[in-house]
Amino acid sequence: MSDPDCIFCKIAAGQLPSNRIYEDDELLAFHDIHPAAPVHFLLIPRLHIPSLFDVDAGHGALLGKMLQLVPRLAREQGCEDGFRTVINTGRNGGQEVYHLHLHVMGGPRPWKKQAP
Ligand code: 5GP
Ligand code: ZN
User: Fold this and answer.
1) Domains of the chain
2) C-alpha 56 to ligand 1 mean position (Å)
């Protein structure tokens, strides 16, 4: 299921360009267009889930797969010394794009950005 007005659904469908670092039948990872760290990529499900608020028990396997993938992709992108993971949720969570996504940020310090 996808939302025709959602930019991440369009990225997943290849209708908008992105710098992809991983994809399979359920997940996609690509570099954030405005990086807040030397390494900053987003991991999304292809399925249009608007936010973490909309996750239910049926999404358990998908979310588990996402989290399992993070350390592998983080290492591949050069975050051997650690990384930050962030899921902004809803208005007070500072969410800007309403398609569930997990930020992975890392790379050599110092990088001190408030966002995302
Ligand atoms: P949020 O605040 O919703 O957690 O973060 C949305 C993130 O998506 C932001 O860090 C923003 O830079 C990134 N972003 C927004 N539009 C695009 C886009 O078209 N392409 C890519 N690669 N990243 C985007
Ligand atoms: Zn979407």
Assistant:
1) 7-84+98-106 (3.30.428.10)
2) 24
**If phi over 0 gives left and psi between -120 and 50 gives alpha, with beta otherwise, what is residue 10?**
alpha
Q: Give the Cα separation of 50 and 48 in Å (integer).
A: 6
pLDDT in tens, 88-99: 999 999 999 999
- How many C-alpha atoms does 73 have within 13 Å on its Cβ side? 27
Q: How far is the CA of 33 from the centre of ligand 1 (A)?
A: 6
The reply to whether 101 belongs to the active site is yes
pTM: 0.96
